[in-house]
Amino acid sequence: MTTVSDRAAETLTVLRPDVREAAENADAAVLRPEDQSQLGEADRARIALRVALVNESPSYADSVAVALDDAEVVRDVERWGELPESTQALLAHCEQVALDPADVGADEIAELREHFSPAQVVTATQVAAYASFRVRLESGLRLVAGAGDGPASQAGITIEAGAAADGFALSTPDQAFPSMRWASRVVSGGDFVETLKLDAGVLSAQTLLREAIMTGHGALGRADRELAALATSLINGCGYCTAVHGKRQVELSGDPLTAVVLAEAGPAAIADERLRAVVDVAGALTYTPAALTAADVRRLHAAGLGADDVHDLVAVSSMFAWDNRLIMTLGNAVRS
Prior knowledge:
Elements: H1 4-12, H2 17-31, H3 41-54, H4 58-65, H5 71-75, H6 85-99, H7 106-113, H8 118-145, H9 173-176, E1 180-184, H10 192-196, H11 200-215, H12 222-236, H13 239-253, H14 258-265, H15 273-286, H16 294-302, H17 307-330, E2 331-335
Antiparallel strand pairs: 1-2
Helix pairs in contact: 2-8, 2-11, 3-4, 3-6, 3-8, 6-7, 6-8, 8-17, 11-17, 12-13, 12-15, 12-17, 13-14, 15-16, 15-17
């Protein structure tokens, strides 16, 4: 009999081999690590289950629920009183990370620290962010596989390209994407890498996956991957990733306009149909739950992107559902 896990693994077979292998390694590192001293496998499954539910992903919810004796309690918020107070706090934090990371601030991290160590806070947030990645990856790839024939989605009204939405001149790339620094809310005086090293196994797996997705030899060009990362980061509200990947898109594309237009005027100011489709599809996959449809996939095909291009695009947007959530919740980014 084909299980939910089998179907999930089959979904990933369309990915580039390097991305698929890195994704499988990340799944094991996050949900089934050898060292569970910081957070046990059951707590990890509870978090992943809550993230799947708020993302309206029943298949992923079922795949992680099999590891739980109390899955029905976790599914039903009204029954959370049956769980230990610390578990309730953990689930509430991770649900907020999944739903709206912009609302997770220093106070929320401090409240979680009343129950958990810094390393446990990082691990729990990693699980929530990873599950946010995984539900988007699986749902996006299934849509690509089943897009079929039919009408494509259409772009919204386009405003004058090269002008900001408010009518003022656009910034230069350096102005739009300034250098940023990041300060940890978990490790006093710590930077991003130092903070994530509290769960070194996941950090290593995550880094390898990001590198495979963003810089590996794929069908979708690297500048387009950076544009998708930028679109995702703008919707999530991650200023740090916006600055980094906006600047990188300009460098890789040699185009000083598109990334700035996207950041300052929005997708409707992008005149190029192909780039606009990339931005819109990456954005649709960003929302919780994702708003991506088969018609959006057909729009990418109509704009000249093949299935492998779209697989790469889905992987990028999904990856930044993970990265954005870590950067936005575990610390605070400001201009340097």
